[in-house]
Amino acid sequence: MRSFGAALVFFAEMGMLIGFVVLGLWSGDGPMSVVLAIALPAAVAVVWGVFLAPRAPRVLPSRIGLVFRLALILAGAVAAWIAGVAWLAVVTVVLAVVGMVMARGAEREIPGARAPR
Questions:
Q1: Are 47 and 38 in contact (CB under 8 A)?
Q2: What is the dihedral of CA 104, 108, 112, 115, to 10 degrees?
């Protein structure tokens, strides 16, 4: 159950990054749209790598990390929504919420099990 939840969260993370790519393409004109489409998800990926990755150099406390992870994923969904790709926004939010509940729920079901950060 926990692994399936983590997989759903991973797909939500991919949806988040795609949402920022789409927003970048939608926001700019000409070459600037390509620059934004590369820069927005790259900036988010750097923040993710520093604070939320499994081997992050600055690990956040569990609850703060969970809130920060959800906030970034929701920001990506909002970016997709603003860019007019509503289906991507909805799928990203659903995957994130269901995946996080499943991953955190497994922590309570199995004594000694820990959900991914």
A1: no
A2: 0
Rounded Cα–Cα distance for residues 76 and 42 (Å)? 13
What's 84's DSSP letter?
Answer: T
Angle between helices 31-51 and 62-82 (to 10 degrees): 170
Q: Are 6 and 99 in contact (CB under 8 A)?
A: yes
What is the distance between the alpha carbons of residues 50 and 101, in angstroms, rounded to a whole number? Answer: 24
Per-residue pLDDT tens digits for 53-77: 878 888 888 889 889 999 999 999 9
Would residue 30 be called left, alpha or beta, if left means φ above 0 and alpha means ψ between -120 and 50 degrees? left
Instruction: Give the global pTM.
Output: 0.82
